[in-house]
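Please predict the structure of the following assembly.
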Amino acid sequence: MQLTRNKEISDLEVIERYLQTRDSSYFGILYKRYSSKVYAKCISLLKDEARAEDAAQEIFTKIYLNLAKFTGKSKFSTWIYSITYNYCIDVIRKNKKNKNVFSDEMERAPDVIDDIEDQELLLMRVDRLKIVLEKIPEGDKAILLMKYNEDFSIIEIAEALNKSESAVKMKIMRAKQKAKAVYNDLFKEN
Amino acid sequence: MSINNFKRFMEEEETRIGEAPNRIDANVQSTTNFFTFAGNLIEVFLPRVLEAFVAMTGGSNREYDDQKKRRTPDNGYNGPRNFPK
């Protein structure tokens, strides 16, 4: 009964009730709603269960400590996932020697940049898309997932990554190019 | 709007990975309990500790000063002890 009632309460109502009462069971509701999704994103980006567990724990602690700062301007899921991507990219960067996690940080930009149609990526077969996402730099994978899986706007991605909108647009363009190049290398002749 | 293959990919990943381990829940709970406890501690005891510290270092206690201000001459004040009767 309690669970059924909890399902009817929106995230924003749960947050408001938590902030009014400081009853940790309300934070528990949010944890139950989002823990598996956050954990799956952490494993998908970090590719290591132990690191993903640590990351998920840190992310939920951050959410708990900053819950009062959530204004409801965006959806709660957008807020929570932007913290997730931001944290995972930081972890990846810290564990890399050269600190570069995006294509545009690793390679010189080509003289002419052709923008790739979204449909070219969205219609890739899932099994192939999975392989492509494993082959491209982790930052590129994260930014493509933010755009096409979470449907984040450019502004939301910019806020999540602490970058300018133009830098985000460039990163998306380079990530799409990289994904297409990997796809062509692996599957074009088949 | 039709589902795109990025969403399908992530759905498959979530199904494959399943629920987050209980360890994470336990650790998050203990961390949040600690912060709640620390917050309550600060909220309840810190003002008292500060007042005691101020009093010990010779400063004035605002609550005590307010009480003094509220006293009228005939309310708790008997005049100087050596005042001739």
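The mean pLDDT of chain B is 78. Residues 22-56 of chain B form the longest helix (35 residues).
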